């Protein structure tokens, strides 16, 4: 029975590792590979940490299993070793992990800085300014574009264009936008881009991402915002700048639609 | 050497004279008792019931995730919205209350309240707490807390209640209109929180005073069992962190009821209510909340760590590996615990430069945890392990703590946390820490100290079954959640399957729910074993485990005043299998056992001490 | 492998749980609730009279509704309704000798029917004697289907009385769209709008404004004229854009075009059900509501007499009433989708100049149109009408709360125009239509008599309100201020 228990503690980490091992093939892994350059670096960090953690996990779990096994095979009358510990061992397992941890901490500073510290944002975002304003509200995402040819202002302007749950951005360049909320706290989460940022009442938070590949990307809400939290789904439509412009001019003419022009213009 | 406080002297004088003479009634003895042991058991019983309540709430949450929008079995009729479904705001309330009950009414009070109360005086050789009445009040203040928490279930209607999560971020928690139906309920919830705070604060002051002033002669700081160290550090943490939460709670209460604007910016219109005035800042709440709640994570963990160290050492018949490093690392956890709160807020929009500081300090707090883990393994290493349910639960604790600690590294790394924040990865992480670690520690502790509480043993076979089923159920439920988190499934979603990238997770969630149900039903074994053993368990003597601590020199259960004679401590708590012990022909040696050369002088010394 | 095992185990456990929880209702045991009006009818008027010997059964209000609409678990497709129930239409080409029970039919469908092995199929008769069975249109299950010959073997024989003849129209697998819509509706909509579309789901009580109660058949924001119902396009638009300023969100990435179509049809179905129920109630309640019965008994009639008169009414007059009610219903909902119903302005929007806005503001304040009476001089939605006490048009009692009330008896807050949130859409045409047709069910009246040019002036003014420097004062006072570029954005 003793051996069974020792094996029990060997067995479960094996199952745990096995389940992680088969996970990617079964779709229990990142929804897609990172679709933004920054996301790729975040994934890189994730895999680095995963590697370190896996080694430690295996090491410690098997050490636990081993010491239990060792004792399980021991005879009942064999007495325990009398020891209060080992100074040098303590030193080793203090110093080594601290180096690893400091390394992990320092290694990712620049990714963080680039993601969040405004002065480290890509130059392009500084030049372009925010392209749109994304306002979260219970329970949808409202998008406000500046009138084509003008710059985005924090206050709504008469020529602004509005959309809901769909943001069109240009591919191949860093795009910055202003994140706000109309009511409670929400969080902008684009899983494929590995971007997440809370929208806080009273703050305008600039967020940026870059999407090299045209396509549709999911946006969900990642901060509890009330009963309909799970419903807040939106799409980022990434497409070449030309198509974004086209979309905006369509949006503009739709928004100014007065019902009179030729009938086929009316797409309702 | 021995620090003998005047308090204990005078008290033990009284005690020696008045001990057997005053008769007290049933109510005073078992209900409004000032005896720390009774209070401890009261805490334990209450929190175990709350554990079941919290577990039931969790199962309801899991039901919705596995079978979204389906009629709940049995209880569905009670909450029949249309078609007996869990409506979204009901779901929100369910997970809010699950977390609140589990954290504030189970984990914190079961550790500090139940075991802190029961063990502190016994393990340091005192006859009771320093402030027995305060101690009684700390238990009875749990009742208004429970009342308010459970009132918050009902005041908002059957299917709505506090709906802002246990973190209660404003504005969701500050504006009545923002979380529909949570009007009075959220206010009640805050009141409940305040009462839990008052209760904990009373306990904390009491523990600190008792541990500093009432140790038995010879019980130096470094002769204290690690349980006492951990309780001591926890008490300090609570004393420093709680006022912040209480203040924040009152501020939020004022925002809700008195129209202040600590957390509410101007001009917010929710649910077409009147626009808000004033220029508050919602992030302020997050800072204040986490300034308490991060240390609270350690409040919910350190005592379990301490108790597990005690039990491991006893069950392996071997001294704790690196006693002092254990103490230092607990102190380090406590110290660093105060400067890492920002890691809950990496994506919140606080100044990003802070993110770097918090990341570094958070990485550093992993270090003492790692040291402790290595020391536990070192303790088992070369021991003569008794594979009983206590040992299994303790090993389970270590194994689960490793997982919880390691998954924490991902979130400590800010860029990676950007992705994992508020996904199921977090849910997996903190359940591994709070359930996997703390509760397995508590299960072990219940079995271990049960003989001291009731003078009878718990059934070891049933306890082993309980461990195995809980362990399998627990890992089946929470390990896959890591993977859900990696897929990017956000927390607190009533219906994640609305999102195409999460659609394929339904079978996995059903598996998790089944595991959770298994785990939930396994707890019936615990309760049954507990209740049965109180009355029908095998009777035992003073020291059924062959342990060293002072509490094992007292009768089981200890009478009023705990010890027959005021104990004197001669050595550290973990001298298992020491040469001294061998000389006595056993593998343990009680802390009260005088060394051979002092045996003759022992009586004179104690006479001197009491003189 | 192990994962599959896990799944098996999981299923087993689930199965065990389900078995152990048997009788606790696994399915969505949701059902349509009847309106208060129906509930207020006397018992016999609700439930009808069962058949007794030779006397045929007489259906009460509840059965009349259920017969045509079913319940959420088994919806009925009443072909009279202008709802796309889904399914493939076809005709009976040939029937075997109709003197004996029919087991086989030769059918022909408008589109090719590809059937996968094992999927249950059914056909419903839309015309012919089989469509007029006692329990509504006949539905028969098809046991096997041969696509080449068009031969369908029926799983149960049809009786000779209800035998179909060549040329009868059938629908294969009818109600697919409606079923799909119902599924989506239960998942996305029902917790606010309620299973029956009564705007009374579990979440509804917390929302301001309350979710729409479809059962009056009235929807607020339409592109159709003031007398018309809402069109399918309008419902699509609401699903696409949500209703800003309310809890009605946009469903765009969540529902694709097919889904939206299905939801729209299901919502229309629910609206028609509610309206049908209401109209039946109107037929019955003057004489047979519980209150009326009490009054009649006080007036000297005996209970038996009342029951007898109800029997008479149901037997003789009800058929005509039903005919009338359903024709009316069908034509109203059909008309809404015609081009004629849509409001198209006579002229294009007049240029958005300061002058136009000034004119608009004058009209806004003018006696004839008097927007300010409700919306306030500064457009803040705080006009004098918001403080009066109104009478409930049905009960003739004063409402408890001051302000205007809509047909759902909710306080009808005039829109605050300074916020720049337009629930029915922010396009000029949307505002035009709001003014032209009013907001149905609410106290915003139709201004269709106002010349379209003037409406455009008002639209221009209203759209400029959020950007006024000093709301309520800007355009009138100072002509030179109007000329600044700032004002002519």
Description:
The complex is a heterotrimer of chains A (268), B (611) and C (489). Helices cover 40% and strands 21% of the residues of chain A. With 268 residues, chain A is of the alpha+beta class. Chain A folds into two domains: 2-73 and 89-116; 129-257, Immunoglobulin-like. In chain A, a hairpin with a 2-residue loop joins strand 1 and strand 2 (140-145). The radius of gyration of chain A is 27 Å and the shape is elongated. The N and C termini of chain A lie far apart (73 Å). The model of chain A has no long low-confidence stretch (mean pLDDT 91). Chain B has three domains: 30-264 and 278-300, Up-down Bundle (Cytochrome C Oxidase, Chain A), CATH 1.20.210; 312-525, Up-down Bundle (Cytochrome C Oxidase, Chain A), CATH 1.20.210; 541-611, no CATH class. In chain B, 63% of the residues lie in helices and 0% in strands. Chain C is built from 15 helices and eight strands. The model of chain C is unreliable at 1-28 and 474-489 (pLDDT under 50). The chains are: A alpha+beta (268), B mainly alpha (611), C alpha+beta (489).
Quick recap:
The complex is a heterotrimer of chains A (268), B (611) and C (489). Chain A has 268 residues and is an alpha+beta fold. Chain A contains six helices and ten strands, in the order αααααββββββββββα.
CATH architecture descriptor name of the largest domain in chain B: Up-down Bundle
* Strand segment tally of chain A: 10
Tell the overall outline of chain B.
globular
What would the principal axes of the Cα set say about the shape of chain A? Answer: elongated
Round the mean pLDDT of chain B to the nearest integer and report it: 89
The largest beta-sheet of chain A arranges its strands as 3-2-1-5-8
Measured by residues with Cβ under 8 Å of the partner chain's Cβ, the largest interface is:
A-B, 99 and 117 residues
Number of strands of chain B: 0
Low-confidence regions of chain B:
1-21
């Amino acid at each position: 029975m003793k051996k069974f228990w020792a094996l029990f503690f060997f067995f479960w980490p094996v199952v745990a590792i096995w389940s992680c091992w088969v996970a990617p093939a079964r779709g229990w892994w990142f929804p897609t590979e990172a679709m933004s350059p920054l996301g790729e670096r975040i994934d890189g960090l994730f895999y680095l940490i995963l590697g370190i953690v896996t080694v430690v996990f295996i090491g410690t779990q098997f050490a636990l299993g081993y010491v239990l096994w060792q004792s399980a095979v021991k005879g009942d009358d064999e007495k325990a070793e009398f020891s209060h510990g080992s100074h040098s061992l303590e030193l080793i397992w203090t110093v080594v992990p601290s180096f690893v941890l400091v390394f992990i901490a320092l290694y990712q500073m620049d990714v963080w800085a680039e993601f969040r510290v405004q002065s480290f944002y890509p130059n392009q975002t500084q030049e372009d300014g925010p392209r749109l304003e994304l306002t979260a509200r219970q329970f949808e995402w409202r998008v406000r574009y500046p009138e084509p040819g003008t710059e985005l202002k924090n206050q709504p302007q008469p020529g602004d264009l509005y959309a809901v749950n769909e943001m069109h951005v240009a591919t191949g360049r860093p795009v910055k936008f202003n994140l706000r909320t109309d009511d409670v706290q929400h969080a902008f989460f684009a899983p494929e881009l590995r971007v997440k940022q809370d929208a806080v009442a009273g703050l305008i938070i600039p967020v940026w991402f870059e999407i090299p590949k045209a396509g549709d990307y999911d946006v969900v809400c990642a901060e509890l915002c009330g009963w309909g939290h799970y419903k807040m789904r939106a799409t980022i439509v990434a497409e070449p700048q030309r198509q974004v412009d086209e979309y905006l001019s369509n949006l503009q003419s739709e928004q100014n639609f007065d019902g009179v022009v030729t009938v086929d213009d009316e797409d309702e | 050497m021995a620090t003998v406080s005047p308090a204990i002297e005078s008290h033990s004088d009284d005690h020696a004279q008045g001990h057997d003479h005053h008769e007290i009634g049933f109510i005073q003895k078992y209900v409004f008792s000032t005896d720390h042991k009774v209070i401890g058991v009261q805490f334990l019983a209450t929190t175990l019931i709350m554990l079941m309540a919290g577990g039931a709430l969790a199962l309801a949450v899991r039901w919705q995730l596995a079978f979204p929008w389906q009629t709940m079995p049995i209880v569905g009729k009670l909450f029949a919205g249309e078609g007996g479904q869990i409506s979204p705001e009901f779901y929100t309330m369910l997970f809010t209350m699950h977390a609140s009950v589990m954290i504030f009414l189970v984990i914190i009070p079961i550790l500090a309240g139940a075991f802190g109360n029961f063990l502190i005086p016994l393990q340091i050789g005192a006859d009771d707490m320093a402030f027995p009445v305060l101690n009684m009040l700390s238990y009875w203040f749990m009742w208004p807390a429970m009342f308010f928490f459970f009132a918050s279930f009902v005041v908002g209607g059957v299917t709505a209640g506090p709906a802002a999560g246990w973190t209660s971020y404003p504005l969701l928690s500050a504006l009545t209109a923002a979380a529909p139906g949570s009007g009075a309920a959220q206010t009640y919830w805050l009141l409940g929180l305040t009462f839990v705070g008052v209760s904990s604060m009373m306990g904390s002051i009491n523990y600190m005073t008792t541990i500093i002033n009432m140790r038995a002669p010879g019980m130096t700081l470094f002769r204290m069992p690690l349980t006492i160290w951990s309780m001591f550090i926890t008490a300090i943490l609570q004393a420093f962190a709680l006022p912040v939460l209480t203040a924040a709670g009152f501020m939020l209460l004022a925002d809700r009821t008195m129209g202040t604007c600590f957390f509410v910016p101007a001009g917010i219109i929710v649910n077409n209510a009147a626009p808000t005035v004033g220029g508050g800042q919602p992030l302020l709440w997050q800072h204040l909340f986490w300034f308490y709640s991060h240390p609270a994570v350690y409040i919910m963990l350190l005592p379990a760590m301490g108790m597990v160290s005690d039990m491991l050492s006893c069950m392996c018949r071997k001294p704790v590996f690196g006693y002092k490093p254990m103490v230092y690392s607990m102190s380090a956890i406590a110290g660093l615990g105060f400067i890492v709160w920002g890691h809950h807020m990496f994506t919140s929009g606080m100044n990003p430069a802070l993110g770097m500081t918090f990341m570094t300090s958070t990485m550093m707090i992993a270090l003492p945890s790692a040291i402790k883990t290595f020391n536990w393994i070192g303790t088992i290493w070369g021991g003569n392990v008794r594979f009983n349910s206590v040992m299994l639960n303790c090993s389970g604790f270590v194994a689960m703590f490793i997982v919880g600690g390691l998954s924490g590294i991902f979130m400590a790394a800010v860029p990676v946390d950007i992705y994992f924040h508020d996904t199921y990865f977090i849910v997996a992480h903190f359940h591994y820490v709070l359930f996997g670690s703390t509760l397995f520690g508590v299960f072990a502790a219940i079995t271990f100290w049960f003989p001291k509480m009731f003078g009878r043993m718990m059934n070891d076979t049933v306890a082993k079954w309980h461990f195995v089923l809980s362990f399998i159920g627990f890992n089946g439920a929470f390990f896959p959640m890591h993977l859900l988190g990696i897929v990017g499934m956000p927390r607190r979603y009533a219906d994640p399957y609305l999102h195409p990238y999460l659609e394929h997770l339904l079978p996995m969630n059903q598996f998790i729910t089944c595991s959770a149900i298994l785990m939930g039903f396994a707890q019936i074994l615990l309760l049954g074993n507990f209740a049965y053993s109180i009355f029908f368990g095998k009777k035992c003597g003073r020291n059924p485990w062959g342990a060293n601590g002072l509490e094992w020199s007292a009768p089981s259960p200890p009478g009023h005043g705990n010890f027959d004679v005021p104990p004197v401590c001669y050595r550290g708590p973990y001298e298992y299998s020491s040469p001294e012990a061998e000389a006595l022909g056993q593998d343990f040696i009680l802390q009260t056992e005088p060394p051979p050369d002092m045996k003759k002088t022992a009586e004179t010394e104690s006479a001197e001490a009491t003189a | 492998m192990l994962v599959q095992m896990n799944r098996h185990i999981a299923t087993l456990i689930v199965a065990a749980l389900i078995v152990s929880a048997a009788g606790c209702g696994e399915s969505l045991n949701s059902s349509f609730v009847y309106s208060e009006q129906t509930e207020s009818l006397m018992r016999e008027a609700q439930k009808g009279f069962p058949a007794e010997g030779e006397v045929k059964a007489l259906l009460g209000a509840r059965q009349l509704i259920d017969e045509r609409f079913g319940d959420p678990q088994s919806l009925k497709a009443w072909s009279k309704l202008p709802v796309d129930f889904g399914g493939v239409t076809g005709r009976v080409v040939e029937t075997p000798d109709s003197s004996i029970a029919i087991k086989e039919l030769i059918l022909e469908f408008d589109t090719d029917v590809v059937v996968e092995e094992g999927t249950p199929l059914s056909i419903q008769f839309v015309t012919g004697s089989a469509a007029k069975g006692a329990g509504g249109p006949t539905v028969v299950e098809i046991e096997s289907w041969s696509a080449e010959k068009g031969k369908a073997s029926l799983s149960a024989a049809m009786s000779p009385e209800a035998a179909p003849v060549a040329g009868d129209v059938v629908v294969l697998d009818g109600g697919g769209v409606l079923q799909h819509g119902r599924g989506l509706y239960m998942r996305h909509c029902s917790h606010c709008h309620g299973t029956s579309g009564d705007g009374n789901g579990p979440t509804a009580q917390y929302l301001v404004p309350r979710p729409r109660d479809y059962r009056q058949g009235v929807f607020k924001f339409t592109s159709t004229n003031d007398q018309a119902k809402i069109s399918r396009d309008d419902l699509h638009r609401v699903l696409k854009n949500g209703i800003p300023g309310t809890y009605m969100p946009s469903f765009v990435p969540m529902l694709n075009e097919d889904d939206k179509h299905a939801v729209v049809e299901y919502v229309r179905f629910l609206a028609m059900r509610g309206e049908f129920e209401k109209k039946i109630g109107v037929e019955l309640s003057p004489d047979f509501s519980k209150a009326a019965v009490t009054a009649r008994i006080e007036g000297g009639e005996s209970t038996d007499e009342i029951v007898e008169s109800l029997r008479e009414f149901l037997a003789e007059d009800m058929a005509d009433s039903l005919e009338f009610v359903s024709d009316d219903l069908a034509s109203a909902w059909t008309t809404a989708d015609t081009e004629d119903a849509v409001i198209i302005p006579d002229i294009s929007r007049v240029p958005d100049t300061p002058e136009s806005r000034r004119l608009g503001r004058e009209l806004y304040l003018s006696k004839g149109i008097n927007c300010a009476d409700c919306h306030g001089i500064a457009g803040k939605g705080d006009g004098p009408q918001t403080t009066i006490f109104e009478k409930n048009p049905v009960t003739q009692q004063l409402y408890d709360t001051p302000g205007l009330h809509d047909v759902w008896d909710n306080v009808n807050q005039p829109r605050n125009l300074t916020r720049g949130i337009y629930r029915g859409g922010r396009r000029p045409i949307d505002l035009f239509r709001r003014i032209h047709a009013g907001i149905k069910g609410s106290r915003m009246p139709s201004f269709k008599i106002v010349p379209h040019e003037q409406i455009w002036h008002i639209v221009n003014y209203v759209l400029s309100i959020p950007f006024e420097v000093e709301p309520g004062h800007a355009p009138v006072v100072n002509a030179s201020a109007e000329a600044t570029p700032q004002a002519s954005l």
